[in-house]
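Why do we bother with holo predictions? Because pocket geometry can differ from the apo form. Keep that in mind while you read this record for inosinic acid.
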Amino acid sequence: MATVAIIGTQWGDEGKGKIIDLLAEKAQVVVRFQGGNNAGHTLVVNGKKHIFHLIPSGILHDSTICMIGNGVVIDPAVLIEEIEKLEENGIQIHKEKLVISPRAHVIMPYHRALDVAREARKGKGKIGTTGRGIGPCYEDKIARSGIRMEDLLDVEFLLEKLKSLLEEKNFLLEHYYHQRPFSPERIAEEYASYGQRLAPFMDDVSIRLEEAKNKGKNILFEGAQGTHLDVDHGTYPYVTSSNTISGNICCGSGIGPLAIEQIIGVAKAYTTRVGGGPFPTELEDPLGSWFREKGGEFGATTGRPRRCGWFDATMVRVAKRINGLTSLAITKLDVLTGLESIKIAKNYQHNNEKVYNRTPSKITDFETWEPEYIELPGWKEDIRKIRRYSELPKEARNYIETIEEMMEIPVSIVSVGPGREETIVLRKIF
Ligand code: IMP
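The structure, written out:
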């Protein structure tokens, strides 16, 4: 048995979905523990590409149970749509395939409305959220005024709760944001019907995880977003509203910290970011556009073009420390093919000092922290068909080994293309 976590080391979109899909072949349980449908991963179902946002990436493996922990925020209509899409494609979703925590919070229509209205009002200083209501839903959770999945099963209780909550929300929406108010009765009716549809899947994720552990099953924890979007450790306030790091696995699923044995950090061979916020190695030139086109760097959730730049070793070193990473998975190495030379930001220069293992906590300080680069030779050979590390061009190996030396942890997986088989596994995970 092994318990393995997959965590993004940058600003999300590192290609975690592919790594999870690959490892899920040998895992019997895949668990999401934070975030919501702000995340997105592409799955190919019967030859057709689909983008899923809430369903964990292991769903296509027959013997894998997918669990959505209490730390996830769920938009039930989105989840039902994803279940139906899978069923239309002949993949039956039943309670031995999908488990949803009754403690998970529900994204309500007023959360989405507030998310969008707030961003519009912020104008230039906006975060660039996905507009899915993630922030307002987590706010209500912490303010103890959230609706949980189990609340959808009791329509009278739900209606009472909504009547009291909407007094404040509607006031804000109508009088501050000049938006339409919501009717508690309508929402209660609609969301109670979602509750009925999802009721068969609701079960205690913590208990199901303990049972799986006791039976010696392999368990995979699927992180969403990335370390630098973490609400505490990321580039605040340009972050998401949950803790995206490995420490939150315990809170978001109900498992003790000693149960997690391996923590694999996923890092793209370069860096991308979607939405606002600092990005020291960003390439705002034709090379940045080249990365975007070649790497297909457009958001899976919103379709927005991603900002692109060089690999930032300091950001990934910070991710190593905060998550306690045991190894790295480097993705999209093939995108670098064809470059004459490749840069890595090895550290920052700040106050005439070289900084290797931290980033500024104050957002405005990013302006004075300059990345310092090394330049490595590129390669021209197509690497997508290579399955053995030793067969990679020596320049590509040099690139990986330079990152390995800088991080002081081994690289366990190198991805050389989007397909499951386009992967080089250097160290056994399960
Ligand atoms: P929110 O999570 O929708 O509140 O958005 C907050 C910030 O996190 C924005 O900059 C989003 O673009 C970013 N973000 C949220 N989810 C993801 C993701 O899955 N990948 C990349 N960026 C994300």
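The first strand starts at residue 3 and ends at 8.
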